[in-house]
Fold:
Amino acid sequence: MLFKLCTLWSDIWFTMIGLYARPIHEAKSTERRPCVFVANHISYLDIPMIVKVVREPVRPLGKHEMSKIPLFGFLYRNAAVMVDRSSARNRARSVRTLKQFIRFGISIFIFPEGTFNETGQPLKSFYDGAFRIAIETQTPIQPLIFPDTIKRMHYRSVFSFTPGICRAIFLEPVEVAGMTHHDVSRLKEIVREKMEEAVLKYRNGEVRELRIKN
Structure:
């Protein structure tokens, strides 16, 4: 019920503000569920895009500060796994909760950069969390990039919003079968390279418009 409420909210809200989400799957036939979704993070719109384009039950890892936003905060607080990064105990509890959802067959969603990328580079460095969880639960990584959210709303201000198309690019999944904790750094680098290449490609428009779509 909560997931359906979130998707209904996103459908209504996106229409009202003139935002048109466009999911594009580069290799849809290879996608598996549950999975660990990972995406770049550069705009406040990244989080609403999750419930708009991932049309299936998913539990994102979210900062507890976001739960204070009126109305959206209520949905966010109940749909996401809250984490307070300043508390080691809270971080550990959040990881256990995310693993539990995977065991229930529910995908999880993590921004491996941790916070907004304000570096001017395609991506910030990644934290280990998403990749460690994927290996420990033997769950494939599903990379996803949002190349247009920064154009629609810059991370510097929520008042920078511009209506238009927002693409969500589902990249080819990365399998983790047989990997151990010794492979966390290697897996992280493999995924980061794929995502960085895609961010540059789609932001520069060096890709054909014809793709497998929802």
Remarks:
- Residues 2-213 form a domain with the Glycerol-3-phosphate (1)-acyltransferase fold (CATH 3.40.1130).
- DSSP finds seven helices and eight strands in the chain.
